[in-house]
Design goal:
alpha/beta; Rossmann fold; 8-stranded mixed beta sheet; 3-stranded mixed beta sheet
């Protein structure tokens, strides 16, 4: 107990150690919380709507980069977002529309602050020709049929002896055969000292090719391609290109390669 001020030494019987405090009206704190719970969302909504409808935050320019064969105006029109608010831009939908163009290999769309859309286009490049039914079609290295571009001089041709088909821009020929041809054209001169001079394809047999040494190699499809090429390299080391000349090397059956003479030759 606390003693009386000014001496005396006797304790004050009416002193209490509890500090005095003020009682607030019941429900006042809850009321303030409710007030802010209403006001803050409304304030955020008002800001969102102001930005959403503001002309300052709408796409005012679509900048197209990388379009060569394609018209930049055509690409911009296909994106179709000029005047659209930059909030919740439907970029995935615009990306999907552009990828439907035969000449488009890849595309990226992003916002350049504050109101420009940058569209970066990677066009497909011509790799060679796919010849079927007497018609030559320009293709890229993935086998996509192109228009408006011509491959460089000396570009490879794959002769398709299957029944005639009609291909339109954006269609794909047998892309597996194109991949094999692309690989072997670079591989053969380095690994077996031979140059590929003719490439043929048939839907039943797959891909085959002929070298400048007179060897015909039947590869079929790309399954186990590394193994097939290693078999070819081993035989070339063992027999030499002259020893393989005039023969057919059939690699379609994996671990059972076959080496035979051309029909009518012994």
């Amino acid at each position: 107990m606390r003693r009386r001020k000014g001496g005396g030494g006797r304790p004050d019987p009416y002193y209490s150690p509890v500090e005095a405090y003020v009682l607030l009206p019941e429900g006042s704190i809850t009321g303030k919380r409710r007030f802010w719970l209403w006001v803050l969302p409304l304030a955020f909504l008002a800001i969102f709507l102001a930005l959403f409808f503001s002309p300052l935050f709408r796409v005012q320019r679509i900048k197209v980069v990388g379009a060569q064969s394609l018209s930049p105006d055509e690409v911009a029109a296909l994106v179709g977002m000029e005047g659209h608010t930059i909030i919740l831009l439907p970029l995935k939908e615009a990306d999907a529309r552009l990828r439907l163009l035969p000449m488009v290999r890849d595309v990226t769309i992003r916002l350049q602050w504050p109101n420009t859309l940058l569209v970066r286009v990677e066009e497909r490049e011509p790799w060679g020709y796919w010849v079927n039914g007497g018609q030559s079609y320009v293709i890229d290295e993935e086998g996509v049929v192109l228009e408006g571009k011509v491959p460089s001089l000396g570009a490879p041709s794959i002769i398709d002896t299957s029944p005639p088909l009609t291909f339109r821009p954006g269609d794909r020929v047998d892309s597996d055969a194109v991949v094999i041809a692309h690989v072997v054209l670079g591989w053969a001169p380095v690994n077996v000292g031979a140059k590929v001079v003719a490439i043929k394809y048939n839907v039943a047999q797959g891909l085959s090719l002929t070298t400048d040494q007179g060897l015909q190699v039947v590869i079929g499809d790309s399954k186990g391609l590394d193994f097939k090429l290693e078999v070819w390299r081993s035989l070339a080391e063992e027999l030499g290109n002259k020893g393989l000349a005039g023969k057919v090397l059939d690699l379609r059956f994996g671990a059972r390669p076959a080496l035979r003479y051309h029909e009518g030759k012994q």
